[in-house]
Amino acid sequence: MSCVKRLVLSALFGFIVFFSIVSAQPDTIQTVSLQSNRLSTETAFEFGQVVSGEYDGGGLDHLWTSRLGVWLKDEAIVDKHLQFKTSLGLILWSPVPTGTFWQSREPYWSPSLGEAQAIYKFGDAQQPFLEAATGYFPFKYNPDARNLGEYMYRTQAYPPIVMNTNWIIVNRDLAYLTGLHLSQTLGPFHHDLLLTTETEYDPLWDFSLGYIASLNISNFATIGAGINFWRFWSVDEDRTSSKTNANSYVNGADTGYYTYKAIKAVARFSFDIKKLIPMDLLGKEDLKFYGEGAILGFADYGDYYDTISQRIPIMLGFNIPAFTLLDVFSFELEWFGSPYPNDMSSEIHSMTPQPVLSNVASIADDMKWSIFAERKILNGVTLRLQIARDHLRLVDFNEKRLFYRENLETQDDWYWMVQLTYGI
What we know:
Radius of gyration: 22 Å
Mean pLDDT: 89
Strand order of the largest sheet: 1-2-3-4-5-8-9-10-11-14-15-16-17-18-19-22
Structural class: mainly beta
Largest sheet: 16 strands, antiparallel, barrel
Distance between the termini: 48 Å
Number of strands: 22
């Protein structure tokens, strides 16, 4: 293990020990007994149409698609400091009908893990000095983002890949992580430290260390920034940074090798304009202007990664006034100037951190946009609408997984999706 890795892991261990000691109270050590156990359910039914799009085998023209997700959630409170959260479910999905055989037109059920985490609160349980969570958990650091953004954990660096859809398409503006999450709020300042292991994309099990902080300024503005040492500790160096001819490049008289490892950085802002223009008719989320940007790898190297501006996605969003008719009505715009297709097939098939080269001179996928509307109808019932040209990935019947390449590549490609969620 290199000196840098030792220092990083030592600092993380010291962080945990330090805050454990300073926040310890006599009443934090108690006999384990279950105080309460709450079961709940959630159902998300969404349907819509890909008006225009593509996949590896052809085009998508007015393709109707739908998903149904059902989850059973359990929240067990051991005491005022310790709780466990678990969510298990099933998703009914329809693949893209990539053939004439009947199986490609049938719906399928797949298991779904929503979360499985243990949470411990240090100090005062109502206003904890430090909160620690471990397991599999949802993580969202940009509360204003509705579809695009959240780049720290929804991107790859080498090659530069952006993801924003999953098996459920609408209202999934977050990441699901496995590992350790420490969070702390000190007045208007909040920060998170995360040690995570990769459980979704190859190479699996690599460790990443992320830190992100935000500052609320008089409830009018929020600024935030973070850094992620992406895959800094590999469990299999031959897969993360393979030294083979297929993965090599020439740097003068030397030979270098591509790697998945990277340092990623994000920054975001949010302004609540209605604080300057108070109006009784405005809703809570109206007139918010927000944005986020990221650098997906600082290092320029090799033949493919020689321009840092091609690894910088930028998102801007604005909540259009809906005057309480809608809870949220947002428009988001993204620019990402990568010259390569948003395609993960080289990572999956050949396990090399090289981009997939396009067979066309230019790909018209630099600009993405999204319109999102949400309205709570009844207690526990919410209706949402999403119209977008984003990084949509539908389900491929042949491999029973999301397509490697996004399905919306040209400026004419877009879709609409309606989602109804309900639960108790």
